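Hey, quick one: can you model this chain's 3D structure?
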Amino acid sequence: VLNVLGVSPGDPGPPGSDCAAHVVAFSSKFTHLKIGDAVLGEAASGSLASIARSDGRLTAAIDKSLSFEQASTLPTTWSTVHMSLLGARPKGGNQVLLHAGAGGVGLAAGEYSHWLGTRVMSNVGRPYK
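Sure thing. Here's the predicted structure for all 129 residues.
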């Protein structure tokens, strides 16, 4: 959002790094991939193009339960949640307060917090949320 609005500090690069696609080529050092696999990941560049390049370590296979549109929403959202909660280190039985809990990151943080066994509380910006 900051990038598109032109208020991001520094050069964030082109918008759109999350992607989902079929693998058309890869390095042999990545044994979890094969040609034709449906994957999600972080693209080094060009995720809004017909062909994108990504580091194989930043890709994961997806199954038929997710569309490419759904899968491409996951990488940044879930890595943001993981790194945030990794830093906070909540333990089972702790309480976690999530701000903006109705957004994509907030919903993912709530689910992740439940996996950790915490009690989740959330606030939202509008009553209808």
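One thing worth noting: The longest strand covers residues 53-61.
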